[in-house]
Amino acid sequence: MKHVTSYWKKMRSNHSLVKIQAIPNQIAISAKVALQGLLILSFFLTACKKKTEQANQNDSTQIRKSGSAKPPQVNVEMTKKLKYDVVYKHQNGFARVMLGGKYGFINKNNKEVIAPKYDWASDFEQGVAIVNLKNREGLINTQGKAIVPIEYRSVEKPIGGLVKVSMETTEASDSLSKRYLWGFVNTKGQIIVPIKYDYVEPFQKGLTKVARIRTNDQGFKQKFYGVIDNEGQAITPLKYGFIGDFKEGYATVSLDSGRYWGYVNREGKEITQLIYDEARDFKNSRAVVKKEAYWGAIDGTGKVKIPFRYPFLEDFEGQFARFFEYNLYGFVNQQGKQITPAIYEEATRFENDFARVKKNGKWGFINKNGQAITSIKYDTLFPFQEKLAVVQKNGWYGFVGEDGNQVTPLVYSSAESFMKGRAKVTYTDPNTRGRQTEQKGWVDVKGRLLITVSKDVFVVKQGGKYGIMYKDTLRTKLTYDFIDALDNGAFAAQKITENGNRKVGLLNILGKTLSEFKYDEYQSIGYGLLLVSADNKWGIMNNQGAMLAEVKYDQVMPFVENRARVKIGNLWGYINTKGKEVTPVYYYHVEDFLNGKAAVSRNKKAGWVDLQGKETWQD
Fold it and tell me: In Å, what is the CA distance from 401 to each residue of 308, 396, 405, 426?
């Protein structure tokens, strides 16, 4: 928002630039002489030191108005090898060198292409460099030819083919600046904008602001602004106390430096009288202006489109602007129609055709017609992204669509906005043994929870039912009560069978059934194996659904050295990872294998068995 004080700040800033450009002649000359004196003294001192010490010193003359503000980078290695006092690092294929206080250039092969003869030189940029000789500046190309004569007090790098230059003024005028006047030349050295202005700005889209200092009606010196084109032709007269930047083809102007405001277009025509107390830049084809304590808005012809009735009116974001009255927010469109009265405690700008509004401490969404698409009941909500929005109530998150309907229930402990068809969420979910675990997952645009198994594989959950997705294709129907991705690459799934019992079976990545749904529990045990139980008995199945060990054991212990203890009744035995019994199940006591042997006892005898089941008994 522009207001009177902000414009006066800009005016003070601009006047400070005039003061810089208006330094008395003798002071600037003394500064230049002092700078040269320091440089000579520096060379005298460094002549007594090694060149490497000299190379590490900063070149104070590098930092100047028309050059780079960055300290020069010295090439220490080349400074040692070459004949120069200082060799700088290569920039754009060339490096500056200094010899006896004079600057020149070498190419990327370290061959001298421009002899050291300048009092100062910038690095090459876009094929040109600024050089200084006897307190005069110009531009040279990479062949050393002066494309802008070395006759100006200051020269800046070209922008859009135009070079900003200044010269000392010798003419008697009413300007405060007796030292510098500014103008523009092209890269052939031809004067395009006469060097007669006390202030100029860089060109933007073919136009720039310029100013001269004259005596105003009260007898004071004042800067008067105008606009010129890139051929030096006046677009507006030099009559304004302030001109803003052009926005959407229009610039704010004031004759009296901030008391009354109006607008000019790029042709220099005033589209309004200068009658407004405050004026903001054009945005989305409207400019918000203030008159007699109330705000309204105008279009590009200067016609009032929003009447002056609002204590506060924001800039238009798209087709709508927020207004504020009686400590509440409402919205008005570009034609001046209120789409909602001021009834909301808080309101965001419209984003993707929807705005978030707060009433009685709760949030909801309204559309561009001002209609509430959701109940205003949420504690938090985020903007719509990819036609879905995050909402939160009582600490739980979910998603709603642009019709206001919930796409997911509010069941997530955290949620992020959609990006590329998915949104990251944190969920808690019980496994088949009822254990609650907090996990990271994704929600897709259909509201389905995607539990990551691998890059292309997901367990999918929606409405309390599960399925398997592979390469963005649902490989099963969402008919399972639970699906768990196993370490062996298969999936343990749980569903209710025809007789009404909840049973576990095995599926592969494509949703193919690998085993019957007849088991009560399961447990992954490594080696690509799965323990399954039925009627309180346990067996072993591989990851293809093939039974390796019959479901007959009361207990199966973990594998150690590829052997597992198994129990039937009160007796124990051993099986291998193929489900084959390597000993009969007839021991009263058994222990895990260690170094190929396991302790066992039977018929009051103690001994051990090896990995092949061969027994050795103690006497």
Answer: 37, 17, 6, 20
How far is CA 513 from its chain centroid? 46
Give every CB contact of residue 222 below 8 A, 6+ residues apart in sequence: 213, 214, 215, 216, 241, 257
Q: Kindly state the DSSP code that residue 125 receives in the 8-state scheme.
A: B
Phi-psi region of 421 (alpha: psi -120 to 50; beta: other; left: phi over 0): left
In Å, what is the CA distance from 200 to each residue of 166, 191, 207, 214, 569?
A: 10, 15, 11, 15, 100
| 1-55 residue pLDDT tens | 334 333 333 333 333 333 333 333 333 334 343 444 444 334 433 433 433 333 3
Contacts of 469 (CB under 8 A, 6+ apart): 450, 457, 458, 459, 460, 475
Taking the C-alpha atoms of residue 399 and residue 7, their distance in angstroms, rounded to an integer, is 45
Q: Residue 161 corresponds to which tokens in the numbers above?
A: 């083919």
Residue 413 host element (H or E): none
Q: d(Cα 325, Cα 163) in Å, to the nearest integer? A: 50
Q: What is the H or E stretch that residue 615 is in?
A: strand 615-617
Question: 298: burial class by Cβ within 10 Å (0-12, 13-18, 19+)?
Answer: buried
Beta bridge partners of 511: none
Separation CA 522–CA 530 (nearest Å): 7
pLDDT digits (tens, 9 = 90+) for 234-261: 999 999 999 999 999 999 999 987 899 9
Closest to 479 measured CA to CA, from 499, 502, 457? 502
**Beta-carbon contacts of residue 596 (< 8 Å; ≥ 6 apart):** 561, 610, 611
- From edge to edge, which strands make up the β-sheet containing 120-121? 120-121, 128-133, 136-141, 146-152
Phi, psi (deg, nearest 5) at residue 30: -60, -40
**Six-digit token pair at 493?**
């799934």
- Whole-angstrom distance, CA of residue 375 vs CA of residue 358: 11
When computed from its CA atoms, the radius of gyration of the chain, rounded to whole angstroms, is 41
Q: Which of 595, 597, 594 is nearest to 613 (CA)?
A: 597
Q: Which residues are CB-contacts of 89 (< 8 A; sequence separation ≥ 6)?
A: 73, 74, 75, 95
